[in-house]
Predict the structure.
Amino acid sequence: MGFLDTLLGRTKPVEPNLDVLFAIPSAAYTLQAALDLAPTGVGAVCFKPAEGAAAAQSQSDIRALLDLDPTLEVSISRDEFGFTWVTCAQSPVDLAALVTGLHAINTTLVDAGFGPFLLCTVVGFHTSAAERPRRVGLVYLFKRGSVYPFAPAGAQTRDTALELQVRAALGGELPIEPELGRWFPIWDAPVP
């Protein structure tokens, strides 16, 4: 970054640290112990779709790579904003394998030159309590290199108390996004 960039207020985007995803399985133990949140076995990668042969080849590579794991059920969808979601569901739940699959999707896109198009990766958790089930997704923001919890509580409402509890529980284990204003809701996400 040069002197002129500094004067004009331009900043260099944070390089995605995809290895943060590998810290999620150990953080899952903390969520289970502190808040009775268990992994759902569902995770997704969101990115802005690119056009052209390279983009089509990347999606084909992703599908072929994920088809190697017979326990992963993969689906691709688009949301109302035009973002593509590659969703991986797994039963029985093996969070380490799920995170490895999500990491493979991200790495394939970054290696193909589509790193700037990555938006986020989400891993779902839920409570087993039948009387008051709660859901939360751990959202990794590529452009910030940080994670935040998103807990939908109904139609366009959030369980902010749960989000803050998750932040407190995982503060020492994951790079939690410090600016609450960047904890964007992802209402149409296939996870959590």
